[in-house]
Amino acid sequence: MPISRPLLLAGLPVAAASLLAASLLAPSPAGAAERSVRIGYQKYGNFLLLKQHGGLDARLKPLGFTAAWAEFPSGPPILEAVRAGAIDVGQTGDAPPIFAQAGRTDLVYVAAEPPAPAGEAILVPKDSAIASLAGLKGKRVALNKGSNVHFLLVKALEKAGIAYGDITPVFLAPADARAAFERGAVDAWAIWDPYLAAAQAATGARTLATGEGLVGNIQFYLAAAGFAKAEPNVVAAIVDAVRDVDDWEAAHPDEAAAELAEAVRLPKSVVAVALARQAHGVAPLTPEVTAGQQAEADAFLQLRLIPKPLDVGAAVWKPGT
What we know:
Elements lengths: L4 H6 L3 H11 L10 E7 L4 H8 L2 H5 L4 E7 L3 H9 L5 E4 L2 H8 L4 E6 L7 E5 L15 E4 L4 H13 L7 E4 L2 H9 L5 E5 L2 H9 L2 E5 L9 E5 H6 L1 H20 L1 H12 L3 H9 L10 H16 L19
Parallel strand pairs: 1-2, 1-3, 6-7, 6-8
Antiparallel strand pairs: 3-10, 4-10, 5-8, 5-9
Helix pairs in contact: 2-5, 3-11, 5-6, 9-13, 12-13
Pfam families: NMT1
Organism: Lichenibacterium ramalinae
Family: Belongs to the bacterial solute-binding protein SsuA/TauA family.
């Protein structure tokens, strides 16, 4: 059986995945009637629904474009692929764009979803002796480096009065982190939905903290800055299509849960829990959202997790400029 493109990409290191995405999603040959806008997505969320519903090409066709999709396991490799020129548009949580911008990725924020703080959490095994965030001191915590839960961990430790250096972060992708969590190789796990809902259902894990009262957990839609400048109508069409599918999901949660459950190979009941913690309303970034991203970037700088100060506002898309 041939290996699918998504499986190929999901199983490779970041740099290799970016190079493979570039070869799989090469632009149409010169003289072709249509060009491809290359979109990086994860196996969950609005981009997955948009891909499955197939409505994007109808919006892109009058602009001379079609959509070419590439699946990635998380946000950081999506933005690494943007940096490498392998994709044009992607969706990630709040932390990956900060690390990417610090790494000189030329990107712009084009839209955001409302905060969904209950959609990420720090878990401990059901029989763990850790009873509160304070109990994380000296412990090993699994997380996906540079992902949305990285900031959750930072703020949770701050709330508990624990220095970031007083825990041992263990950087693992979600599947590897769950395996480490279940065999006791780590003491806690910071993770997002639907992996969060799946772990809660399957392992009975206890929740030390969600993002509520700590972080926003916002999903962002981003584009390569050069592409957004050259093709603003294409970017706007993608945002409009995402808004439509987000509205559909909000109005049809049961159908959306069934559709996503089949794609991610999780029980519908698990996906329904994750969707209930999701917010709806895709829109341009507000000053408040931009300020929140700036505060997150400043916090990462203070901890020396990024090497230089960032101006998040300078990376917010301003069509026509």
